[in-house]
Amino acid sequence: MRSPTLRILPERCDGKMHCLRICPTQAIRIRGGKAVILEDRCVECGRCLQVCPHQAVVPQTEVFADLERLAYRVAVPAPSLFAQFPREYSPEEILQALSRIGFHEAVDTTQACEWVSWALREFLREYRGPKPLISSFCPVVVRLIQIRYPSLIDQLIPLKGPEEVAVEALRSKQGADSKRPRDFSAIYLTPCPARVPRPDEGGGENPVLAGAVSIRDLYNPLLTFLNHQPDAYRWPMPAMGRGLQWARRGGTGTALQGELWINASGINEVILVLEDIESGKLRDTDYVELWSCRGGCISGPLVVENFYLAYHKLMLLEQRKMQAPPLNMEQLRKWYQQGRFTVEHRPRAVAPPGTETDLAEAIARRRAREQAQSLFPMINCGLCGAPDCQTLADDVARGQAAVEYCVFHDRGHLQELKDIYRLPGRPEER
Amino acid sequence: MPACDAEGTGKPLLRQGYAVQGGDFLAGGTVSTRIKDLLKEIGLSPALIRRAAICCYEAEMNVVMYARQGTMTVEIHPRELVIRVEDEGPGIPDVELAMQEGYSTATDFMRSRGFGAGMGLPNIRRNADLLEIESVVGRGTSLRAVIRLV
Ligand SMILES: Nc1ncnc2c1ncn2[C@@H]1O[C@H](COP(=O)(O)OP(=O)(O)O)[C@@H](O)[C@H]1O
Ligand code: SF4
Ligand code: SF4
Ligand SMILES: [Mg+2]
């Protein structure tokens, strides 16, 4: 099994259901007064992390200071980083500031975003399979499809994300005279708990990304530097291009011409769209761009700035007179033909545990679920530890919970809850 | 078209019926979605679910578009899945013709909503292992699609 990207620290959790019902895949249960995440259902959307008032849900990003152990650190910023700071700091300044706060170098990921947008157009043009094609750039969307919409797996676009492409391009143009060692460590600066490299997820000895630091953790060091050294940037600035748009919804399709494409963001919206696709309703659409976060990565769980303000800043940045160097078409085409944009492994379906392969058993489980459900009041009180009665019924049918978890069926459980939450009881009961 | 061994005539492991309202474009598609969720819950393979979902959706939308009302029943047998759609409506005068790709009597309104490409019945035929349509003009249409599970 793969390692989780989000953990709940029991010592911080107050068990008061802040996250229980917000989880879009019913992956949280409260057990013994503490929230736990069921790994195999979690799509890593980070909604629980966002709503927890006690920071009990922690991502598996690295601590900034710990990066010192790596010899040569290359920062790979997510485009959303650039909309986090006050308006007077340009993306170019932020990029250069990165190479002053502990990174030896920073790559311009936005350029790779433009390349991938171009590759996307090529892929759409050549594609003849079932439609619509679905973007695979949000790992939460990919995981959601693996778990809940496996019939759509073949419609996921098999292209690498810009961060991966950016690092690989850097590796390939490594000159002999470069001061950058061959085995540099690429560190992703992430708005996203789901986009964190995992040792057990391919890459082996030499993963493309060596680690990830959250934008949140970098915010203060960067801001301090930007505030105190405003004149530190005098060398020619690398002008950044349209790829910045990848920070928001709608940003990936900017190279498309005439294709019918839509974008949707926010995990619940994404679920609605996937339902429609699975029902065959969007099959005249060429491309569907999907993001788990409400405005795209710019509203990711690990960013700092207010979403609306960040969006405004991004719009201003996009309107700047773009001076980015034009795309080198010949090179892009060559890379595309060499397969450098294409992923090595397509994602595979992931069945939740307790899912039988035998049809008769599966139907028996469905009956058991319906039967259990008929015993519950369907008021979704959550006291059983499941987000709603239907989910408890499903847990019961899978052998992962008992009917008695429901307080309507077991007064003893109610007493347990009183002890856990230290309810004093009314005066006459004391 | 190859016939199914048992063609789903015995007692099914599971049967579930739903009502479909003609002319209701708002609710149109919800029954297919519920059937699809059922098939997912019992763990049919993604490829089978995909084929079944297409058959259900096309058949449901035909009731919504052309008939007054109907019922849609899904039966799960050990070796096959049977989808039955029976409606009260105008019926289909020439089933052979209706099965042709691109043939459609959809109205402008339906087309404006993205329907009426004349690909519904052909799509069902492509995705089912067996398709039977019986229709009486002025009475209604009944459709039976069988998908082999093994
Ligand atoms: N349930 C039905 N009742 C009456 N007519 C139908 C029914 N289903 C299909 N038809 C007729 O068959 C034609 C072809 O159907 P179909 O292949 O689904 O294409 P479309 O729905 O796009 O027209 C329809 O235009 C309609 O005239
Ligand atoms: S990250 Fe998302 S899917 Fe996972 S437990 Fe939290 S809310 Fe649920
Ligand atoms: S929208 Fe972006 S930040 Fe949010 S989950 Fe997807 S990839 Fe991560
Ligand atoms: Mg039709």
What does this structure look like?
The complex is a heterodimer of chains A (430) and B (150). Chain A has three domains: 1-59, 2-Layer Sandwich (Alpha-Beta Plaits); 64-126 and 150-241 and 300-337, Rossmann fold, CATH 3.40.50; 358-430, 3-methyladenine DNA Glycosylase II, Chain A, domain 3 (Orthogonal Bundle), CATH 1.10.15.40. Chain A is globular and about 75 Å long. Chain A is 32% helix and 10% strand. A four-stranded parallel sheet of chain A has the order 6-5-8-9, with helices on both faces. With 430 residues, chain A is an alpha/beta fold. Chain B has helices spanning 30-41, 46-66, 95-98, 108-112, 120-127; strands at residues 14-21, 69-76, 80-88, 130-136, 140-148. The longest helix of chain B has 21 residues, at 46-66. Chain B has a five-stranded antiparallel sheet, with helices on one face. In chain B, helix 2 packs antiparallel against helix 5 (120-127). With 150 residues, chain B is α+β, with helices and mostly antiparallel strands. Chain B is globular, with a radius of gyration of 15 Å. Classes of the chains: A alpha/beta (430), B alpha+beta (150). The structure holds adenosine-5'-diphosphate, iron/sulfur cluster (2 copies) and magnesium ion. One iron/sulfur cluster is lined by residues 6, 23-25, 27-28, 37, 42-48 of chain A.
How would you summarize this macromolecular structure in one to three sentences?
By secondary structure, chain A is an alpha/beta fold.
Please describe the topology of this protein:
The complex is a heterodimer of chains A (430) and B (150).
Chain A: E1 6-8, E2 28-31, E3 34-37, H1 47-51, E4 57-59, E5 73-77, H2 91-98, E6 105-106, H3 109-126, E7 133-134, H4 139-148, H5 162-172, E8 185-190, E9 211-214, H6 215-228, E10 261-265, H7 267-278, E11 287-291, H8 307-319, H9 329-337, H10 359-375, H11 389-397, H12 411-420
Parallel strand pairs in A: 5-6, 5-8, 7-11, 8-9, 10-11
Antiparallel strand pairs in A: 1-4, 2-3
Chain B: E1 14-21, H1 30-41, H2 46-66, E2 69-76, E3 80-88, H3 95-98, H4 108-112, H5 120-127, E4 130-136, E5 140-148
Helix pairs in contact in B: 1-2, 2-5
Bound molecules: adenosine-5'-diphosphate, iron/sulfur cluster (2 copies) and magnesium ion (MG).
